[in-house]
Structure formats: C-alpha cells, structure tokens
Write a structure and sequence with these properties.
Length: 331
C-alpha cells in the first residue's frame, strides 16, 4: 500500500500555488483511500526570521485552511511537526549522514540565504529535517510542487545511505508532482518566477482567503505582454499563459477549450473572466476557513489526536533506528 506524506509551512493563508500544486492533490489521494499523513511544519518556519505570535496564529489558520480545502481528519493524519519530538531527534541522526557540500548546492538554500547577511544553521539543515519528516513515517510517495524535487532527492539519498549502512528499513520515496502546469503556478508580477509567499509584492500572489475585490484587483494588475489576444505559450507568453493555466485549473476545463472560448476577448476582458472563475472557486473555501477558525478548541483537539497517531509511528521508527545505530542502552 502507498504511504503518502507531505508537509506545508504554516504561512497563514495558502496561496494559489500551494493549493493547486499540492493541497488539492492531497485531498484526492486521501479520498482514494491512500494512507495519508500531512504535517504543518512549524519547525521549518523558524529557519527564516519570524514573529512568534504570528507563527502561532498561522498554525491555526493553516489547519483551518486545510480542513476547508477538504482534508478530512477522519481519513488523514494531520498534525503539527513540533508536537512530535522524533522529528528533531531523527534530524540530528540524519545530519550525521549528510555532507555539507550536498546541502550547499540545493537551490532553495541558495535562494533564501542570498537575502540574509548571516545564514542560520537551521536554514542550511532545513532539507535534512524534511528528509526526517518523510522517513519517520516510511513514506513511499510525497506529493509536492516542482520546487521541492531536490529536497525529495535528498530524502531518497538519505534513505539509501541509511539502508546500506544499517539495514534496509526505509523505502526510497518517490515525488508525486502534477504532470500539468499545476506543479508550477507563476507569480502575477513576475511570471519568470513561481508564485511564492516570500515575494515582497503582495500583488504577486493570490491567497485562498483573499476577498473577491482583492482577487479581481490582483488579476487585473497581473503582468502580461503587449499582445492583446489570448493564447497559451508558457515560454513565449508566460504571463497570459499563467492566467489561462489558473483558469483551467479552477474550472476543470482544458487549456484548449479555455483558449477557444477566449478568442473574442482582449486581455482586459479576459482577466475579468479569470477573476470571476477564481472568485467562484474560492468562495466556499473562504467561508469554511472562517467557520473552522472560529472553533479553536476543536482545532486544538483535532491536531492533538493527529499528533498522537503520528507519534506512534514515529516512536516505532526511532526505536528501530536507535537500535541499529547502537545508541543508548536498550538491547
Ligand atoms: P511550502 O510550504 O513552501 O509549500 C507547500 C507545497 O506547495 C507547493 N508549492 C507550489 N506548487 C506549485 N506552484 C507554486 N508556485 C508553488 N509554491 C509552493 C510546494 O511545492 C509544496 O509542495 N519544504 C516544504 C515543506 C515540507 C515538506 C516536508 C514537504 C517540510 N517537510 C516533507 C514534503 C515532505 C515547503 O517549504 O513547502
């Protein structure tokens, strides 16, 4: 049976990239009766400068948002990373199996460390903790957006190294990346880049809980080009193509039929159509988020049940790992 694991940073609201590239897939996998575990990775979030009260709120907001998107705690194990101590413990052990040059070349590290004067060790070790997340649950499949591929490859490498030194206990996981354009939703301000929370311009990302007029405004201002008709050509016309792509993903229509229907429209009119479709798709989710957020005690309870389930698996793995490494005194 497939064991699915994925994680998401508690950044508060999801943006459309997280949602279309990853979260929507998780709900499909969960409903296909796979064994799914989803982790809100708060320990990863402190590798960049952060504000503690905001982080705490963002954890709840992320939990509410995942429920609103259709994650069902009766089917999926949903928990907060820091509630399961084994993530840190295993991170330490795996860091002894990793070399510094291997981490230094990872693209996400290179990108983020460029913006900082002093680079925290945590940012450097970040992908090792991510491998620990995956391996603790012996995941076989990891559904992520295209930007996470190198991190998954590190997890594969660490599983192989562990297995060859200490015995075959970890499956070598496989990344599940959407084969369509959902794997890479682009920034609305700079379509040469992916849509990302870390971009400074708030107009670059659509958040899943943005109010309808905010969504309409962001799409209206989306950077396109000087050609006014609508066509799909990601390399030649990334801005317009990204809108067509988003439009297709939220309506379930094919890119071809979207382009066909937009034949008579210029970019300005077409943007209104895209905005309407995005607003309509996100409206029910937005309402559900508010509903779940208002019941904080239920969220706390649900996350504790999730952590308890996760702990059982994580503790089993760690006890096996320590045994094999000769750690401690337990024979
Ligand atoms: P994070 O929190 O940045 O993003 C969560 C998920 O959203 C995907 N994603 C996108 N997909 C398509 N287009 C985009 N523009 C876009 N932006 C983000 C990401 O690929 C991701 O799947 N390091 C991870 C979190 C993590 C994790 C793990 C993932 C920690 N431990 C273990 C898998 C397994 C991260 O920062 O994702």
């Amino acid at each position: 049976p497939r064991k699915i694991f994925s994680g998401i940073q508690p950044t508060g609201a999801l943006h459309l990239g997280n949602y279309l590239g990853a979260v929507r897939r998780w709900t499909q996998l969960q409903n296909a009766r796979d064994d799914v575990t989803i982790c809100i990775v708060d320990l990863h979030s402190i590798t960049m400068p952060h504000n503690p009260p905001v982080l705490r709120e963002n954890i709840f907001e992320m939990a509410a948002t995942l429920l609103a998107c259709g994650i069902d705690p009766a089917k999926t194990t949903l928990f907060v990373q820091s509630a399961v101590l084994e993530h840190c413990e295993f991170n330490w052990i795996l860091s002894s199996l990793t070399t510094m040059p291997r981490l230094a070349q990872l693209p996400q590290f290179k990108e983020k460390s460029r913006t900082l004067r002093d680079v925290p060790l945590g940012l450097y070790v970040y992908p090792v903790l991510q491998a620990a997340d995956i391996m603790l649950y012996k995941a076989t499949h990891v559904p992520v957006g295209a930007d996470q591929l190198q991190h998954i490859q590190l997890a594969q490498h660490l599983s192989r190294s562990f297995n060859s030194r200490y015995g075959e206990i970890f499956p070598v996981c496989q990344a599940l990346i959407e084969q369509n354009e959902a794997s890479r939703v682009l920034s609305l301000r700079d379509p040469s880049k992916k849509m990302s929370k870390s971009e400074n311009n708030p107009k670059a990302t659509i958040n899943i809980n943005d109010a309808p007029d905010v969504i309409a405004e962001k799409i209206k201002k989306a950077v396109t080009d000087f050609t006014s008709d609508i066509s799909f050509n990601l390399s030649g016309r990334p801005g317009v193509s990204n809108l067509v792509n988003i439009h297709a993903l939220v309506t379930g229509q094919s890119i071809k039929s979207i382009v066909e229907e937009a034949k008579q429209l210029d970019t300005a009119r077409y943007k209104e159509r895209v905005a309407d479709a995005v607003i309509a798709h996100l409206q029910p989710i937005r309402e559900q988020i508010q509903m779940h957020l208002a019941k904080r005690n239920e969220l706390i309870y649900m996350l504790e049940i999730g952590a308890e389930k996760a702990r059982q698996t994580a503790q089993q793995t760690m006890s096996d790992v320590k045994q094999r490494l000769g750690l401690g005194t337990n024979a």
